[in-house]
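Our consortium's second objective concerns turning raw sequence data into structural hypotheses that experimental partners can test. To show how far this objective has progressed, the report includes one record in full. It was chosen at random from the queue rather than selected for favorable results. The single chain below, 221 residues long, was entered without modification.
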Amino acid sequence: MKTVLSTKMLSLPQKELFLNSGLGLVEYDALKIELLDVKIPLNYVNYIFTSKNAVHAFLKQAMHSDASRFNAFCVGEKTKGLLETNGVKVVEMAQNALDLAEILVKKHQKESFLFLCGNKRRDELPETLTKNNIQYKELMVYRTLFNSKPFQRKFDGIMFFSPSGIQSYLSENTVENSTLFCIGETTAAEASKYSKRIIVANKPTVENVLVQTIKELTFRT
């Protein structure tokens, strides 16, 4: 039986989709998220979120406020869903941080923003905003930590969901001849430093990574 490693714990529906394929699954969280003890100003109108972790940090402090007075600009459908479920209006959503930055430059040039991020945030968004003179402040609200774990076995496929997840996994392991399934281009760029056997999801969602993995490892001879 072919076996796949997920570097993120999967939800029950995600797991069922996978296990119905006949592939073996091993899962663990390659990363740990620590929300920081910082005060988030709630006097802004526009907030930028590039991950669900930043949303969790924000909601923890904004839960007693009227959520409808905040405007969110975010990356990813899951992040958008979390915001909307909690009554926050999502004005713009993009599939990655650079696309979101370009939307802000094009459509929201005269507004100001608070960018809530983690310690591993990428540079594209703040650099693009700075270059185009868009007013924003940045606040680190969570930290991403490696949750290293050695595996004494080889996997036919390894699913990666962030560049940090790859770095964490490789701090104790090697990719050997595994096919690496990546959630998006930035993760694939990190993976390409270690392997040529890379498949990128059609859409940057966990489900799509699973579908690509199942398709590749079930139908490949």
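The partners drew two points from this record. The mean pLDDT is 95. The chain has eight helices and eleven strands. Both points have been shared with the crystallography group to help prioritize constructs.
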